[in-house]
Design brief:
about 425 residues, mainly alpha, globular
Length: about 425
């Protein structure tokens, strides 16, 4: 190649480089992310509005009835057959002061919370990546979009009208504070999440494991959790309800529902329906406690503070264990687990994590669609077997994260994020 030709190519490359870093192109890049977020938000809102006409048995037989009774009788009287906690009933009461259209109000509130969950999830990923990560904005934008279009998130709010997004959002905020080592806010957010739904307790084991590994975390911080639960019950208590219902309502839920599984593919899907509830529930709970104790021993044996990726991995694993081994799980109770599993896949970008998230979300979505539309595909034990595969994969990931010596004898290489 001639010298003149080489000089010509070099000059062309310099021109291209100047074009790539030109003010005009930088301006387009700065506008690209806000434009993308706006487009994603509009489409996600449209998808949810399209689901509004559907009204299932939960909406017609429970939420609309409670909404109407709260509007008529006030917050001081417990609606017929209602076992939801006081903070959410307070929200339903306030919504009733705004509009008489119960289904629209309930679904709209949940849909608004969907966007709060997406923002909180993107914030958690940003925190874990760090301020200097080169693709921080891109990955956070992808997280926002993925969370909004997760089938479970769309089904739960726009179609079902349920409020699982509410406690999940506070759990994600708690995880964000935990990763940043802001311990007191983490426990406060955990308390708010638990005040809305008992399923927030699935994330509580990771708080214990963090306290075992981080000296900045004190055991007495757990007192903030019941304290916040009592604080959220104050408006209802002022209206005439007992403030202690913030705790007793959860006991009532468990005493009144003695079913091994309520449509959620779990360990109990392999057991005949007529099996003894007390015996098998006790076995499942003991297995869960034993596994979590082993995890606590491994964390203490490691003798170091858990990194951000390990905290998220353990959070996913602990919540998955709770759903799979605890009795009386409904289809939507794995909402928090699948959301955290999705965030783990986005953070690590491991193929195994991505496949695990896709499979788990598919199983959860199918089981929820079966309930909502009264259809049937495979038996629950088949889906429980698939879900067991996901749990075993996560268990192996936890072992390799907490016991590094296994890496020397296996074919799995350490990932920089976890």
């Amino acid at each position: 190649m001639s010298q003149d030709r080489c000089a010509e190519i070099h000059a062309l490359e310099n021109d291209l480089e100047r074009d790539c870093h030109s003010p005009a192109r930088d301006g387009v890049r700065r506008r690209l992310y806000p434009i993308t977020i706006v487009c994603v938000t509009v489409v996600a809102l449209g998808v949810r509005l399209a689901c509004y006409p559907y009204s299932g048995s939960d909406m017609v037989g429970s939420l609309q009835v409670w909404y109407t009774q709260l509007h008529a009788n006030g917050l001081g009287v417990n609606p017929t057959g209602c076992d939801y906690n006081l903070p959410y009933l307070t929200i339903l009461y306030l919504l009733g002061q705004v509009t008489d259209y119960a289904m629209v109000a309930v679904k709209t509130f949940s849909v608004i919370c969907d966007f709060g969950l997406a923002v909180s999830s993107a914030r958690l990923i940003c925190t874990m990546l760090g301020a200097k990560h080169p693709r921080r904005r891109l990955i956070s934008t992808v997280t926002y979009a993925v969370v909004l279009f997760l089938p479970e998130v769309v089904l739960n709010s726009g179609l079902w009208g349920q409020c699982d997004v509410l406690y999940t959002t506070f759990c994600v905020l708690a995880m964000t504070c935990l990763v940043k080592r802001n311990m007191v806010p983490a426990f406060l957010f955990m308390g708010v999440g638990l005040a809305f739904k008992l399923q927030a307790v699935f994330l509580l084991p990771i708080f214990i494991l963090v306290c075992l590994s981080d000296r900045k975390c004190r055991l007495w911080y757990f007192l903030f959790v019941p304290g916040v639960m009592l604080a959220t019950a104050i408006p209802a208590a002022m209206a005439g309800r007992s403030i202690w219902e913030a705790f007793t309502i959860y006991l009532t839920q468990q005493i009144g529902r003695k079913v091994l599984t309520s449509g959620c593919p779990t360990l109990y899907s392999f057991i005949l329906p007529m099996a003894s509830y007390d015996a098998f529930a006790c076995i499942g709970i003991l297995l869960l406690v034993g596994i979590l104790l082993l995890a606590a021993i491994m964390v203490m044996r490691a003798g170091r503070r858990l990194c951000a990726g390990e905290q998220l991995l353990l959070g996913v694993w602990c919540s998955f264990l709770c759903v799979y081994f605890l009795p009386n799980m409904h289809e939507r109770y794995i909402y928090l687990t699948d959301l955290l599993l999705t965030l783990l896949a986005i953070y690590t970008r491991r193929r195994g994590d991505m496949l695990c998230a896709i499979v788990s979300i598919a199983v959860s979505s199918i089981s929820q669609i079966q309930y909502l539309f009264n259809t049937a595909t495979l038996p629950d034990w088949a889906w429980a077997l698939v879900r067991l595969g996901c749990l075993l994969y996560l268990t192996v990931r936890v072992l390799y994260a907490l016991v590094p010596e296994l890496l020397a004898h296996g074919n799995i290489s350490a990932h920089p994020n976890v």
